[in-house]
Design goal:
Elements (H helix, E strand, L loop, with lengths): L7 H4 L4 H10 L1 H21 L7 H24 L1
Helix pairs in contact: 2-3, 3-4
Length: 79
């Protein structure tokens, strides 16, 4: 299991500029990007036992993060 944080700029390095522009010009994108970031950091803290959690909780948060990532990818595909 990887305990590496999945930051947006690392997940979509070729879209770094588009991510920045969308965050400043699209309120919905900015919200889902912030939600992604918050979930990502929470998962990372749990995986590194800074905030221990059971596997079911971590897997549920990972599913939510993946759904947000898919939504973000959709925005980036049309940007």
């Amino acid at each position: 299991m990887s305990h590496v944080a999945h930051e947006l700029h690392e997940e979509f390095p070729e879209h770094a500029e588009a991510i920045h522009v969308l965050k400043t010009k699209n309120a919905h994108f900015a919200r889902i990007a912030e939600d992604y970031h918050a979930l990502n950091r929470a998962i990372h803290r749990m995986e590194t036992n800074v905030e221990p959690a059971d596997d079911a909780t971590i897997e549920d948060l990972k599913r939510k993060r993946l759904a947000l990532k898919d939504e973000i990818a959709g925005f980036l595909a049309t940007a």
